[in-house]
Design a protein that fits this description.
This protein is mainly beta and 950 residues long. Keywords: Repeat, WD repeat.
């Protein structure tokens, strides 16, 4: 750690011990797992991050040459390696530190051109791509050691400190005693990490390398192209952090690119924190309960249509003003107008109508009606016409800016239909032309200019026609241009946005790219599975492709369609993918229950509002006015920041405990901060100014008002909305009266509570007795002695968190809770009748750590696996009981979930907090903190007027 004007580091003996342990482990791995020279050197190079020159002498004097592939290489290393004296390290980039060793023995990361993916899919440098396939998996286990070491890498060559990246300006008011406490905390943490990394790790290392081998099964040709290509692609929308690559690393369990050497937002450590670029992945998970065959965006990108096996057609409101997307239409198409049943397999959303086709013998024409009445958007999606005798329809496409529809069926035909609204308002259709094929028509697509039509069938024949439409009611002029026999069934055809290429995929295990200037096959990209879908981005820079496996590949057009990276879909095979018209989203659906939509812009992630701690974050809390932020980490350090400006400025720091769970709460009136950590409870006064003539004025304004020590650990604290009472739980639930010298006003029960909360109107208090009994009290009386228990509900699993929803009607409350059973439940409580019922249960697939309910109706759930789920429950603010409401409203609240994922599987969400409404901004921000040490603000406000950040 470092403080104002001071930089501390591990002692020489500690450095020697750590260095020796790593070298010993490197030698062991070389013997047991035959690691390459470059991998062993990278392990040894980690010692340079600690800033000790004792590593290389040990290496030179070593009699064993097993870490190296040959004695010559060992001698060469001894002669050539020179280590600068400590501390002259430029930064905490591993690549810079490794540059001190001979470059001939391994590659060195360079600042080469970036591979720009559309939106936030990117900026992967070629060196980073290479890094994926080599030795970084070895270093993942040294994450904790690297973090400690990086604190000592903030000194420049000239001995000065770089203040340009400084985030936290340590307060000069921190006393010498506090510095000693910090140093003590750091020593304990260092010792814990040393013990951790001295343990045998053969199993974990084996798993890392088996994963690396599995990943290497991806196309070697595509990977080599992505490594050697140097020319950057054009950027379509805002560039996000390397979320796709980090997602892959998180899924495989490796610690890939924990600190990217090309990350321009990454800075040196000062104190406990550094500015950090976002690693958060934002997705919209639309639960359908069954397969979804295809999705289609509306032309303006505001709505997403979904064809699901068991629900028929569903429409989702995906406008930027919708923080959490809502299902606005969900209707199964049973008997259509001609009494034909229909399971939708194809959707085409044109400028006027939506065409639906599939099983049966018809194409349904839906007219979307979207209007605004008194500021409320009203929607209607009714079937207004049916095109009959079409056969089984597998492909549909509208001619741009017209009502001409191409229909591909299993009767070996491509039908050209004209859909019109007459003067009387009646919708009619006419089949203008029929193109006979030798087999099923499985794919078809108009060119973006509308002058050409590409048709593919099951025989593997791809045909391109000139297409000229003269006037209404007349057959178009079609002229065959070129036929391409591709050898096997064609499953999808797409035109590049500039019309220069036709992409085709199918059962021939390849992606065929056709040059539309010379009309020749430019290249074929071999795949190990069928190619069931292709999706070129509208910016033309990338092509999404998939089929037969859970991987969706992203091919870079400007790198000769080399595979830049891939997305893994859980629990099923993807069947279709489509880009948003502005490339801000990528929707993927298939043989799984959810439609997953990845956000590719970073507009919801505020720039400069993400920082990393040197250890896990345990608790975060805003002041009531939103100008201050309290953060507590695993080292027991509680830091209070002023966030009213663009920077995080440190106002106050204190150490409460080390390595314990922590709870921080700010009183609603802003006067107090309650901190519970381990067996220590601290109450801070937030407005102390000192006493004239006795003490000097305190610039920090914070003063310790009360300290309590307990024989049992404190687990939770909660202020009453009036700020008079404080609930504090250790081995018993006590209620402290803050207006009476923090005296104990009542002991509610003798069991430890994991969570407790007051309702917004101060009339109801909920607490968990023991681990699985939920007790609800009537606390309307001003005297705690008169508080009465209304309900006691027992559950089989432990409850870790609970929170109250916004209060609308007195006597009607909603309480959300969750824990070990991996399910979030909402109870409707009618206090006057003293009854309750469960109204919602949402499976979370992981232990629930924390719940927070926003006054607008959004409920966020923080899970053990590193995900935050946000669901829309604003309908509960109606003031009516759930039994009086329509089930459709309830379904909207649980069918669409916005998920934030960061370091999935290697991170646990420890704290969530909504930015208070009374702050200087009207925006809705969610603060997220986790065991990965990252704090971040995510914007859930109306984004319709915001421009996409670059």
């Amino acid at each position: 750690m470092s403080y104002a004007g001071e930089s501390t580091s591990p002692t020489t003996s500690e450095c020697d011990d750590i260095a020796a342990s790593i070298l010993s482990e490197a030698e062991r791995m070389a013997q047991e797992e035959s690691k390459s020279t470059s991998e062993i050197l990278k392990l040894a190079g980690c010692n340079l991050r600690i800033g000790t020159a004792s590593v290389i002498p040990q290496l030179r004097s070593s009699s064993s040459v097993s870490p190296f592939s040959s004695p010559k290489e060992c001698d060469f290393l001894r002669d050539r390696i020179s280590v600068p004296p400590f501390p002259v390290l430029v930064n905490n980039s591993l690549s810079t530190l490794l540059a001190y060793t001979p470059s001939s023995l391994y590659w060195t990361v360079t600042n080469d051109d970036n591979i720009q993916l559309p939106g936030k899919l990117g900026s992967l440098s070629s060196a980073e791509v290479e890094k994926v396939w080599t030795s970084s998996l070895i270093l993942s286990k040294l994450d904790g050691l690297d973090r400690i070491a990086s604190q000592n890498s903030s000194v420049l060559n000239d001995g000065s400190t770089d203040s340009s990246n400084m985030v936290v300006k340590s307060s000069s008011a921190v006393s010498v005693a506090m510095e000693k406490a910090h140093a003590h905390a750091n020593r304990i943490k260092t010792n814990k990490l040393r013990k951790k990394h001295l343990k045998p790790t053969c199993t974990s290392m084996s798993s890392h390398f088996s994963i690396s081998t599995a990943e290497s099964r991806m196309s070697s040709l595509a990977r080599s192209q992505s490594i050697i290509a140097q020319s950057p692609s054009a950027v379509v929308s805002g560039v996000m952090p390397l979320w796709v690559q980090r997602k892959i690393a998180a899924e495989t369990g490796s610690n890939l690119m924990e600190t990217s050497c090309n990350d321009q937002d990454s800075g040196a450590y000062f104190g406990q924190y550094e500015l950090h670029s976002s690693e958060t992945i934002i997705t919209h998970n639309l639960n359908r309960g069954n397969w979804t065959w295809k999705t289609e965006w509306s032309p303006d990108g505001n709505y997403l249509a979904m064809a699901t096996e068991n629900h028929g057609l569903a429409i989702v409101d995906a406008r930027s003003s919708a923080s959490v997307w809502k299902v606005i239409h969900d209707n199964r198409n049973g008997k259509v107008m001609n009494d034909t049943t229909q399971s939708i397999r194809a959707i085409a959303w044109g400028g006027t109508f939506i065409a639906l086709g599939g099983t049966g013998d018809a194409v349904s024409i839906v007219q979307p009606c979207i209007s605004s009445v008194d500021g409320t958007i009203q929607h209607s999606f009714e079937i207004v016409h049916v095109i009959t005798e079409t056969g089984f329809v597998g492909a549909l496409c509208w001619l741009k800016s017209s009502n001409i529809l191409a229909i591909g069926n299993r009767d070996d035909q491509c039908l050209i239909a004209d859909v019109r609204r007459g003067l009387d308002g009646v919708i009619t259709s006419t089949i203008l032309h029929t193109i006979e094929r030798s087999d099923w028509v499985s794919a078809l697509q108009f060119s973006h200019g509308g002058t050409k039509l590409a048709i593919g069938d099951r025989s593997g024949l791809l045909s391109v026609y000139f297409f000229v439409f003269f006037r209404h009611g007349e057959a178009p002029a079609l002229s065959p241009l070129k036929d391409f026999p591709l050898g096997d069934s064609i499953l999808d055809i797409q035109w590049s946005p500039d019309g220069k290429f036709i992409y085709s995929g199918g059962e021939d295990y390849s992606i065929t790219i056709i040059d539309t200037v010379k009309y020749t096959v430019q290249r074929k990209i071999g795949r190990d599975r069928w190619v069931t879908f292709l999706a070129p981005s509208h910016g033309g820079t990338h092509l999404a492709a998939g089929g037969g496996s859970r991987q969706v590949s992203l091919l870079d057009v400007n790198m000769s369609w080399g595979e830049a990276t891939s997305l893994r879909v859980n629990s099923g095979m993807p069947l279709h993918a489509t880009w948003h018209p502005t490339d801000e989203y990528l929707a993927i659906c298939g043989q799984f229950n959810d439609v997953v939509v990845y956000e590719t812009s970073k507009r919801r992630l505020s720039k400069g509002k993400c920082f990393r701690s040197t250890s896990s974050l345990l608790a975060v809390q805003f002041s009531p006015d939103g100008n201050l932020l309290a953060v507590g980490n695993e080292q027991g350090l509680v830091t209070i920041f002023d966030i009213s400006t663009s920077d995080f400025v440190t106002l106050y720091e204190t150490v409460v405990g080390v390595g314990c769970e922590m709870s921080i709460e700010w009183s609603p009136n802003g006067d107090y901060i309650a901190i519970a950590c381990g067996r220590t409870f601290v109450l801070l006064d937030t407005f102390h100014r000192g006493k004239e003539g006795i003490h000097p004025l305190s610039n920090t304004r914070f003063l310790v008002r009360k300290i309590l020590h307990s024989g049992a650990s404190f687990t939770t604290v909660a202020f009453s909305p009036s700020s008079q009472f404080l609930a504090l739980s250790s081995d018993q639930m006590r209620v402290l009266d803050l207006e009476n010298g923090c005296s104990c006003a009542r002991v509610l029960h003798q069991c430890n509570a994991l969570s407790c909360a007051w309702s917004e109107d101060s009339s109801i208090f909920a607490t968990v007795c023991g681990m699985s009994t939920l007790s609800i009290y009537d606390v309307t009386s001003s005297s705690p002695e008169n508080w009465k228990q209304l309900l006691a509900i027992s559950f089989k699993s432990a409850i870790n968190s609970l929170c109250w929803g916004p209060s609308v009607t007195k006597g009607l409350y909603y309480l959300a809770f969750g824990g070990e059973n991996e399910t979030m439940a909402v109870l409707e409580i009618r206090s006057h009748e003293k009854i309750w019922e469960t109204v919602i249960q949402v499976p979370c697939h992981s232990k629930i750590n924390v719940l927070r309910w926003h006054s607008s109706g959004m409920l966020c759930i923080g899970n053990e696996d590193g995900t935050v789920s946000v669901i829309e429950l604003s309908y509960l603010k109606s003031g009516k009981t759930v039994c009086e409401m329509s089930y459709n409203w309830q379904r909207q609240g649980i069918i669409s979930t916005t998920k934030l994922t960061r370091n999935f599987g290697r991170n646990s969400i420890t704290s969530l907090c909504w930015l208070p409404h009374s702050s200087q901004t009207d925006k809705i921000h969610l603060a997220v903190a986790g065991s990965d040490g990252i704090f971040e603000l995510v914007d859930f406000s109306d984004q319709s007027d915001n421009t996409v950040s670059s």
